[in-house]
Write a structure and sequence with these properties.
Number of helices: 8
Largest sheet: 4 strands, mixed
Number of strands: 4
Strand order of the largest sheet: 1-2-4-3
Strand content: 5-15%
Bound molecules: zinc ion
Distance between the termini: 51 Å
Number of domains: 2
Shape: globular
Structural class: alpha/beta
Order of helices and strands: EHEEEHHHHHHH
Helix content: 40-55%
Length: about 230
């Protein structure tokens, strides 16, 4: 298909997409908005997401990030990023050394912007929305006490796909560390965790049912697992 036959906005997640920033005068806004728009296009969401509200937490220097959207309307999304998402891990460590005991926020300059690190954060967060759009994955449908674990299972699936596509993403080792830290308290994690990590990391198509089933596997009390094992392989 030639460019001329496509709607103009579909080519680059451009004029049809409205992005608002808070704070509006965030110094890295211009560079970051380019990466955000690229990420939306890369994930094929240009015709899905129309309105993005980006909230930057200037007081938080780590790389915490999350996305919120309305279950029944994927056109609008709210992305929240701690300041550390916009710079390299080396810069984050330097901030921790220099600013660890000081109040206030470190000065952040346009030349400190890391295209790669912010792309990693955008792609990961937007993948959550894409999975809901395409496969109906949504944590809001699950009990509060299961959400952190389900989200971490989902994170492994997301970062595995980003890595296979050669896109900026957490490495397998980094993801694995967070996975273990988050889920190690479940009774059957020691026995099933590795297999589940590998299954998620290499999976292309999953859905809410599969994520739920993986959680049930590590959640089930030890005696229930023994019974299941006796029942046949
Ligand atoms: Zn995530």
């Amino acid at each position: 298909m030639t460019a001329a036959t496509r709607p103009l906005h579909a080519a680059h997640g451009g004029p049809g997409l409205r992005v608002r920033w808070h704070p509006p005068d965030f110094p890295l806004r211009e560079a970051a908005e380019g990466v955000l728009r690229e990420s939306i296009r890369e994930l094929g969401l240009s015709d899905v997401v129309r309105d993005v509200h980006v909230h930057v937490d200037l007081r938080n220097r780590d790389d915490h990030a999350y996305i919120e959207w309305n279950t029944h309307d994927h056109r609008a999304a709210r992305l929240s990023f701690a300041l550390g998402n916009f710079v390299t891990p080396a810069r984050r460590r330097a901030w921790a050394r220099t600013w660890g005991r000081r109040a206030g926020t470190p000065p952040v300059l346009p030349r400190q912007f890391s295209h790669k690190c912010f792309a990693e954060a955008c792609l990961h967060e937007l993948y959550h929305l894409r999975d809901d759009h395409e496969a109906g994955v949504d944590l809001a449908a699950h009990p509060e006490e299961d959400r952190e674990a389900l989200n971490e299972l989902w994170n492994v699936w997301i970062d595995g796909r980003l890595n296979r596509r050669g896109l900026p993403a957490m490495t397998r080792g980094e993801r694995h560390r967070v996975f273990v830290r988050t889920l190690t308290h479940y009774p059957r994690f020691a026995r099933r965790g590795e297999r589940i990590f590998n299954a998620l990391w290499t999976a292309d198509h999953l859905g809410p049912k599969e994520l739920r089933a993986f959680l049930a596997e590590i959640q089930s009390p030890l005696d229930a697992g023994t019974r299941a094992k006796r029942g046949g392989r």
